Amino acid sequence: MDPVIPKPLGDVIEALEQLPGVGPRTAERYAYYLLKADQDKAGQLSDALAGLHKSIKYCPKTFALIDASQKLSPLYSDARRDKRQVAVVADPFDIVAIEKTGSFRGTYHVLGGLVSPIDNISPEQLHIEELIRRIDDDKVEELILATNASVEGESTALLITQKLGKRKLKVTRLARGLPVGVDLEYADQITLTRALEGRQAL
What we know:
The chain is an alpha/beta fold and 202 residues long. It folds into 2 domains: 7-55, Orthogonal Bundle (Helicase, Ruva Protein, domain 3); 65-201, 3-Layer(aba) Sandwich (Dna Topoisomerase Vi A Subunit, Chain: A, domain 2). 42% of the residues lie in helices and 14% in strands. It contains 8 helices and 7 strands. The strands form 2 sheets. A 5-stranded mixed beta sheet has the order 4-3-5-6-7. A two-stranded antiparallel sheet has the order 1-2. α1 crosses α2 (24-36). It is elongated. The protein starts with 6 loop residues before the first helix and ends with a strand.
């Protein structure tokens, strides 16, 4: 670290650089902002980060993010949600994107990523086997493969359809409006709503 920068500030810069998409200059700006900001604001961020791992866990059924005090995701336990319809997503924040459309009343299943040999992510590291068990336990009638329109997303969707074997259920894929290479998380609500409504059977 630059000897001109005091060590405590340098430690914050190094920590911020670990975040995805944050380079050295951006990390320096963030750290300097926190230093200049009101001490309570920095303390609030520190407290929030300290409680992050203690206060959040994964739902054992859907693998969505939930409060540590909850047993299951409210999006699964709510009686108004249709457990026979499951949208399969790569990451928890994909759920947020779909929920903002207000057009889906089924439940979700988070894979925890996508199959990617380059990133050393194998099928065994994803929650695919748990999904297959859910399909049987909840008598799922429709599986919506809502993975990104990317090589990894398509490969993962294909793998899931192969894992289904001879199970009789409707398997659909998000349809028009999602450009190739765009992450679900960043799709606008109108585009995502149309993709849900126009999903196609596989």
